[in-house]
Amino acid sequence: MVERVVVITGASDGIGEALAVQLAERGASLVLVARRETELRRVAERCGERAVPMVADVTRREEVRRVVDQAIARFGGIDVWVNGVGRGITKLPTLLTDEDIDDMMSVNVKSALYGMQEVLPHFTARNTGHVINISSVLGRVPFNVSRTAYNGAKHYLNALTAGFRSEVQQAHPGIQFTLVSPGGVKTRFGVHALHGGPDSRLQAEFERVEDVATVIAGTIESRRPDVYTKPGVHQRVVGYYSSLGSDP
């Protein structure tokens, strides 16, 4: 991990913060991105002198472009880009509004799309690079009805990740696009969800944020294309679709 430059969006809390701390301990140089300056600087201080906070709203393409340019200017290049920004929602599908859908798409899809598109020219020029998109098991199976709009946004992110991988690797096999799918994680995800929700930190069965971060850090080393953070989840996903029906 030493000498690698890693950009993490959504780094002011939760998975992003835990990942930043672990990568700093392994010697990586970090560009930490989030909207909340006070919280972001606190995380940067935890990570040490090789961590640079950059306040930005990654739902705005021009701000993502600025982060790319400033990261390259500061460290001479980018090795890994982690799209960690995300937001949930608590609302039944029959009650969803245009504004609800727009929010889910902007935060969970467009932020990652901008990251991939804006860092890609730098990666293609070097013929190497790694994008990691943080999705969710709910992007595979719609277990939680009140999260339906979030589920749909993460399904979209999954498709984008696979599409970028297939397109880009035709000419640049050294560039990887990895999809990471955690289950429930003990973060502020629930309380920060659009329209509120239960505190995910109080759910006994949810994953520890440090454990999820460890899996993501390992993915930087392995460059695997598709990763679940909790054992047994892949089989659960396969079982869900197997139970829906069969070919005619």
Give a verbal description of the structure.
- With 248 residues, the chain is α/β, with parallel strands linked by helices.
- The protein has one domain: 3-Layer(aba) Sandwich (Rossmann fold).
- Helices cover 48% and strands 15% of the residues.
- The longest helix has 29 residues, at 98-126.
- It is globular, with a radius of gyration of 17 Å.
- The mean pLDDT is 95.
List the helices and strands and how they pair.
Elements: E1 5-9, H1 14-25, E2 29-34, H2 37-47, E3 51-55, H3 61-75, E4 80-83, H4 98-126, E5 129-134, H5 148-171, E6 175-181, H6 189-192, H7 209-222, E7 226-228, H8 233-242
Parallel strand pairs: 1-2, 1-4, 2-3, 4-5, 5-6, 6-7
Helix pairs in contact: 1-2, 1-7, 3-4, 4-5
Supply the CATH architecture.
3-Layer(aba) Sandwich
Instruction: Tell me the structural class.
Output: alpha/beta
Total discrete domains:
1
User: Which fold name fills CATH's third level, the topology?
Assistant: Rossmann fold
Structure, briefly:
The chain is of the alpha/beta class and 248 residues long. It has helices at residues 14-25, 37-47, 61-75, 98-126, 148-171, 189-192, 209-222, 233-242; strands spanning 5-9, 29-34, 51-55, 80-83, 129-134, 175-181, 226-228.
